[in-house]
């Protein structure tokens, strides 16, 4: 474990075994917890109240500072109306070790921009308007992909 990771776990009574990548698992599960909480429009305080925790503990879970016990994960899944497996979706097959550099590119579902877009989308009450926006975005992406793909260019022969 490197010095930064050592300091992160100092005095907390729980350390991942060296080379296990457990801190990466905790971070991934915490990120998925944050994603679902945000999509439901819940604050850390409200989620904490529903499961009998402080917002600080929810914050520690979301940052991966504290791991989530199986029974607590089960409870959170119930409150957030997702299967427990949701927290492990998109988990890399091989979690990077603490000594390996992490990927600086945040996955699209983990970006604040994505969360804000989804929240705004669902604030549109009229389903026809929502569907129109959905169709517009799909058509725009399709047009852009056609412009950049070799198929989208006219044949030069």
TrEMBL record:
Residues 1-25 are annotated as: Disordered. Keywords: Plasmid. GO terms for molecular function: DNA binding. It holds the Pfam family HTH_3. Residues 33-87 form the HTH cro/C1-type domain. This is XRE family transcriptional regulator. It comes from Azospirillum brasilense.
């Amino acid at each position: 474990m490197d010095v930064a990771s050592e300091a992160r776990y100092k005095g907390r009574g729980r350390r991942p075994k060296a080379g296990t990548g457990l801190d990466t698992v905790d971070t991934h599960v915490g990120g998925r917890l944050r994603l679902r909480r945000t999509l439901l429009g819940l604050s850390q305080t409200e989620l904490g109240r529903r499961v009998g925790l402080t917002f600080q503990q929810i914050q520690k879970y979301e940052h991966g500072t504290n791991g989530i016990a199986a029974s607590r994960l089960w409870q959170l899944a119930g409150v957030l109306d997702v299967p427990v497996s949701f927290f492990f979706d998109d988990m890399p097959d091989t979690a990077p070790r603490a000594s390996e550099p992490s990927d600086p590119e945040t996955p699209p579902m983990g970006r604040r921009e994505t969360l804000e877009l989804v929240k705004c989308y669902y604030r549109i009450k009229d389903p026809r308007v929502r569907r129109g926006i959905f169709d517009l975005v799909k058509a725009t992406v399709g047009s852009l992909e056609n412009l950049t793909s070799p198929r989208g260019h006219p044949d030069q022969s």
